[in-house]
Amino acid sequence: MANHSATKKDARQAAKRREHNKYYGKTTRNAIRDLKASTGSEMKEQFPTVAGMIDKLAKRGIIHKNKAANLKSKLAKKVNATK
Predict the structure, then answer these.
(1) Residue 37 pLDDT greater than 80, yes or no
(2) What is the model's pLDDT at position 40?
(3) Residue 51: exposed, middle, or buried by beta-carbon count in 10 A (0-12, 13-18, 19+)?
(4) With the CA atoms of 55, 59, 64 and 68 taken in that order, what torsion angle do they form, in degrees rounded to the nearest 10?
(5) Which are the contacts of 7, defined by CB distance < 8 A and separation ≥ 6?
(6) Cα angle value 49/54/60 (rounded, 5°)
(7) Can you give the pLDDT at residue 83?
């Protein structure tokens, strides 16, 4: 465990950030799951929102930018395949 006050504060901040990042990551994963489960017209409506969520995760550093690009690419293929 940390001994200095600054290190203790850093540990508290890291725990808070971890919870925050976990929440947004889980919310986005749920949105991706719901997008995959939906039908054609619903998919096309939901895709921009989900893509924005993925971009936001990459911007915040929660996921890597290439992972975000791969996720969006796979989802776009799935959306475009459904008519």
Answers:
(1) yes
(2) 83
(3) middle
(4) 10
(5) none
(6) 125
(7) 67
Q: What angle do CA 36, 31, 39 make, to 5 degrees?
A: 30
- Which pTM does this prediction carry? 0.85
Tell me the three state secondary structure of residue 3. coil
64 token code pair: 């890597």
pLDDT of residue 9: 93
Among 30, 44, 26, smallest CA distance to 81 is for 44
* Strand (E) or helix (H) holding 39: none
CA-CA distance, 14 to 48, in Å (whole number)?
Answer: 31
Is the CB of residue 31 less than 8 Å from the CB of residue 49? yes
Q: Report the distance separating Cα 38 and Cα 32, nearest Å.
A: 10
